[in-house]
Amino acid sequence: MEERKQGLSVARIIDREKYYKNKALELEKELIFTKDHVTSLEQQIAVFTEQQEQQDEREEAINQLKQKYDDLEQRYEKDIQAHQQLEQELQSEIDRLNKQHKRSYEYELSDYNQKIQSYEKLLAEVQNDLNEKEKEIDIYKRRLSVMDKRLKSQGETRLNEEPVLEADSQTEHEAQRVLSFMDYALIVHEKRCMIRGELIIENVGQKGLGVPYICFRFTPGDAATIKGKIMSWESPESESIDQEKWQWAFLDTEWAEEAKERGEIWIYPTQAIKLNAGNNLIISDLQIPIETKYYQQIGVEVFVYFPEENYRSKAVNQILINF
């Protein structure tokens, strides 16, 4: 019995030993695990502590930045207020200067405008004077041009003295003979009439003749008026004379003007022409206006004079009209 009891005790002891060994192993494992866990926790705590310190540093830096921002914001507000006050003061000064300058400028502008108006008026007067002078210069230029053409024309065909129309020279110049006549028509209106026609001058002699001068003698003398294709040196058309071409013109010498007062109108060619034997000259589109209420009778005689040959001839017909 005792041996059995002893055997049971040893077995229990062995079992207990195994149990405690196993328990010790488990506890050792748990201890190792706990140590590892503690180490991990310590590491985590260290990391957390470090992060917390960094977080504290960040928060402190943020707080410092906030403080600086608040200080800057306060300074900005003060600067804004100071700037606004300065801007108001400057604007007030600008307004004051503008008002002062405006008054001065308005005075200067008014004075300046008056001067401008005075200068413009003076310039207008000067321009008008210049325009008048230019017109006068143009007139004198035209007159000089006309005088030059007149001198050239009269230099070629100059008749210095009035010829005697009634003298008969045909017997002295039998080889020189001219036949001239008027071909005309009378156009009658209610209070006036117009004689229109042409003068034909034909050389029926044996020799050529020089420059012809034509005289129209009116009866009564105050009816002496001729129009048509006859140029007057006083007319504007005389400026456009083509010196290469000749035409008929009114003679404007002193004796011709005196003759016109007696009722005689003289015309001549503007260039030295010749009337050769067998040829003729035609003065076309002659116009003689007549106011019928002033006259009962009108007569027009025509004479042709050649000063180079001292030969004169009267037209074979004359104009004679009774009203």
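The record above closes out task 2.4. Task 2.5 opens with a second protein, given below.
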Amino acid sequence: MKKWQWIVQMVLLLLLVGTGVYLVNSFQRTLSNQLLPVKEMAGSLSTQVAEVLHPTPTIIPDPVTIIHEVRSLARLETIKFSLEKIITAETRQGVFEWLVGDRLLFVAHGEVIAGVDLIKLNPEDLRLEDDVLFVTLPEAEIFVVAIDNQKSYVYDRETGIFTQGEVDLETEARRAAELEIEASALEDGILDLAAQNAESFLGRLFVDLGYTKVIFE
């Protein structure tokens, strides 16, 4: 008899425990379902706040294109330099720079392309004497100086507590970077290399056209 009583007590205990677990799980599911709209609202509000604080710029290009000039080109590009320059641009420095000053460090990546403009080649610049072709090429020149916007960036910027920074300071830094990059390319001899490459390329071309000997003057 005692054995059966013990079994009945164990069954009742298991039923009570199972019922308790079921009720707890049901309560958690109900509470989670009730809090779900609150979580969604909080997530939506967080997204809206982030959009206000860090808005994504909208770019709307004007569909109208104005062509200012069209002209034929015969440029032989023979060399390209890729350079990097660090530019410091600043304004209103001095005693009160911590109030109204503005200073930025701009890392500029750019390229310089040079070569020979064959449209400047005149008939008298080519003469044939005793199966020898004498060629006088135009002076080598720089065709392109461009900043790579994908690789260039403002590394650091410091502004005074009473200013949000000069609007045109980065633009001025970019202009200065172009000038510095061009000057560096010239200093490194880009024009001499452009002329040498032009002579090498055109020399092979003239030989392929049937001239046995080509001399550049």
